[in-house]
Amino acid sequence: MAFKPGFDQSPAFNDSGRNAWGAGAGQQQAGWGQTPQQAQGGMTPEQLQYMYDRPSASTVDTDRMSYEDTIVKTLLAFGVLVVGAVAGWNLPPIVWIVAALVGFVLAMVNTFKKKPSPALVLTYAFFEGLFVGGISAYYQAAFGGIVPQAVFGTLGVFGITLALFASGKVRATPKATRFFLVAIVGYMVFQLVNLVLMWTGVTSGTFGIMSAPSFLFGIPWGVVIGIFVVIMAAYSLVLDFDQIKTGVQRGAPRIYAWTAAFGLIVTLVWLYLEILRMLAIIASSSRN
């Protein structure tokens, strides 16, 4: 998972509460005791009526982030991801392995780039799609039927998390976020150690340490760890939703909707791959 820059650091705002053009919120309102015509600079009744009859300002007019615009950009990035996945499904392994490396590099570039680039976000989505499609085809060939389960599982977790966040029952808190950061670093270290053990032949299972049966009713460690990681990915979605809410409420520039779209794509891919691997571990253990 890549860490995304926060909207509270947007150049459109500073600590004094003024916007990027130096005007405070109070300076944009009419003074007390003015008539509507005085407040509007002496407009005629016809001019006032024309102004009131105009539709509400759109995202393009205000150049500010909105939920609708963020949804559109996220769906566009997701569509590019799906196109890449369809292509990756039918390409040889070397292609999606290279795509995984390219996707990682692009993820780092998008993460640390100060101003989001739509082209880079969509390019990342395509290469990540190639990798997701290729590895899904591999798992499907080895453990038939688990890819649809992983897709529906990912959509289910996303839907439940979004519903809980929208209802206010789940929120991002500083304490939970600190725990999340510590847990994700620990998980990355664990995966690195597991990979080294697999390469050196210390572990013989398909998934290394995660293939080993645990002491709890013979459930593989990979399933136990996988459930914990899925919970972490769900909390990452909460952080993404919270970041979008913050950006809209603070009037972040419209371009930062691409940051939100990038963050959601990263988290959804991570969630999908973890569910896919957990299902593969279950299928592998059932054969033994």
Task: Give a quick rundown of the structure.
Pfam families: BaxI_1. This protein has ten helices and no strands.
Q: What would you say this structure looks like, in words?
A:
The structure is a single chain. With 288 residues, this protein is mainly α. The protein has one domain (61-287). The protein is 67% helix and 0% strand. The chain is built from ten helices and no strands. The chain has helices at residues 36-39, 45-53, 59-62, 67-89, 93-112, 118-142, 146-167, 174-199, 221-249, 257-287. Helix 4 crosses helix 10, helix 5 packs antiparallel against helix 6 and helix 7 (146-167) crosses helix 9 (221-249). Residues 5-41 have low confidence and may be disordered. Pfam families: BaxI_1. This is Bax inhibitor-1/YccA family protein. The chain crosses the membrane at residues 70-88, 94-112, 119-140, 146-167, 179-202, 214-235, 255-273. InterPro entries: BaxI_1-like. Residues 20-41 have a biased composition (Low complexity).
Secondary structure elements and pairings:
Layout (H helix, E strand, L loop, with lengths): L35 H4 L5 H9 L5 H4 L4 H23 L3 H20 L5 H25 L3 H22 L6 H26 L21 H29 L7 H31 L1
The count of strands amounts to 0
> Low-confidence runs (pLDDT<50, min 5 residues)?
5-41
* Helix/strand order: HHHHHHHHHH
Q: Based on CA inertia axes, which overall geometry fits?
A: globular
What is the mean predicted local confidence, pLDDT?
A: 81
CA-atom Rg in angstroms: 24 Å
Number of domains: 1
Q: Give the proportion of residues in helices.
A: 55-70%
Percent of residues in beta strands?
Answer: under 5%
Report how far apart the termini are: 32 Å
InterPro entries: BaxI_1-like
Region (Disordered): 1-41
Biased composition (Low complexity): 20-41
Transmembrane segments: 70-88, 94-112, 119-140, 146-167, 179-202, 214-235, 255-273
